[in-house]
Every structure is written in C-alpha cells, then in structure tokens.
Specification:
Length: 213
C-alpha cells in the first residue's frame, strides 16, 4: 500500500452506505495512516426508504457513519440525484466530478467496480474514470451487484479496522432489511479476501488505474 501521509483520497458512492460496505475498513486504515478522506454520495434514495422511516433518514445515517469513521463533516458531500435514474444525469455528474477533481486534486479515487451492474453505480464508475483519468483509481467490491469481479488489489485489515467498519454500518438502521446487510456476511467476505492475500482480513479492489508519481 502506498504511503498515505498527507495524501488525499476521494470516495465516490452512488448511494449512502456504498463506500462503507465496499471499502470501509480501508478508509479506517487510510485515515489511521494520515490520509485526508473526502466522501461524495450522489443520492439519498428517498424513493427506496422503507416505510416507517423519514424520507431523508439516509442523510442522518450517512453523517453518523462518516463520523464513526472519523471523516470530517466538511469532507462529506451529499447530493440528491434520484435513485435508479443516474443515466439521465450522466453529463451533469461528469461535470461535477471534473469540478471536484480541480478543487481536491485527489491522489486516489475509490469508486464502484467497472463490473457493478447497478445503473447508478455504473454511471458513477464510468464518469469517475473519465473525470480522474490521470489519478489512481480502485473499484470497490459490492458482491450482490457484481456478476464477476477482478480482485487485483488487496488491502490488509486488522481486526480493529473491520470492527470500525461494522460499527459505522450499524448506523444504517433503515437498511437492515436487505439480504446483504448481515455482519456475518461482511466479516466472511473479509475473511475470504484475507485468505487470498495471506492475512486474516482484507478488502479487495479492481485496479482501474495505478499512477506512481
């Protein structure tokens, strides 16, 4: 893993919780090593919120989760594109990402893997690659959306990194009905990726581009 002292990392998440699920342990490790982490969520998924929760509950849950990961609140940007309709806003999203690139100049971008089949994730990935074509890019893993996944990079995690990831995810009470929302599944995937990397736990990434300055 490259040195992260004074490095700037940008997480692109189509929806709240994507970043925590796909690379939450890695974010804990990067912040622990001194990286500045910025997080952009493109939708609050109001149309998908279960009955009994406020329509904007994911704003509250995302802020709490990012706080748990020690991401400063002023490093979090929450946009309101309608869930499952990102293809209609492709150019607007690209232009926003180009603006973010100019403002932040990140050294590493984490975004949904190119093999992710969710239409919103695909747009964030494709336009993210266009906007940050001269930056190191890793695609994070969301197995329920990936028909295939090329695990070409691994970040070793200690038990504490995984526990911090799970602690952040517990803030998403509105999402606990989802089949993939199980701590044993999340921990099991970290064990599988860890076994592939020769350690106890890991998160896997698809290397889109790796730039060594």
């Amino acid at each position: 893993m490259m040195k992260m002292h004074n490095e700037r990392v940008l997480v692109l998440a189509a929806h709240p919780d994507d970043g925590e699920l796909g690379c939450g342990g890695t974010l804990v490790k990067l912040i622990e090593r001194g990286a500045e982490v910025y997080y952009v969520a493109f939708s609050i998924c109001e149309e998908s919120v279960p009955e009994g929760f406020p329509r904007d509950i994911l704003v509250t849950e995302l802020r709490a989760a990012c706080g748990s990961l020690n991401i400063p609140i002023d490093h979090l940007t929450i946009l309101r594109y309608p869930v499952r309709h990102f293809p209609q806003y492709r150019q607007e999203i690209l232009e926003y990402l180009v603006q973010i690139r100019r403002e932040l100049q990140p050294s590493l971008v984490l975004l949904p893997a190119p093999t992710d089949v969710h239409q919103d994730h695909q747009i964030v990935c494709q336009e993210g690659i266009r906007a940050f074509k001269h930056v190191s890019i890793l695609g994070y893993e969301l197995p329920w959306n990936n028909l295939t996944f090329t695990a070409s990079a691994f970040v070793h995690l200690e038990e504490r990194h995984l526990e911090e990831k799970l602690r952040a995810l517990r803030h998403y009470r509105s999402q606990r009905h989802r089949k993939y929302w199980r701590e044993d599944l999340i921990r099991g995937l970290a064990r599988v990726r860890g076994a592939q990397a020769g350690v106890d736990y890991a998160e896997a990434f698809h290397v889109v581009r790796w730039v060594i300055p």
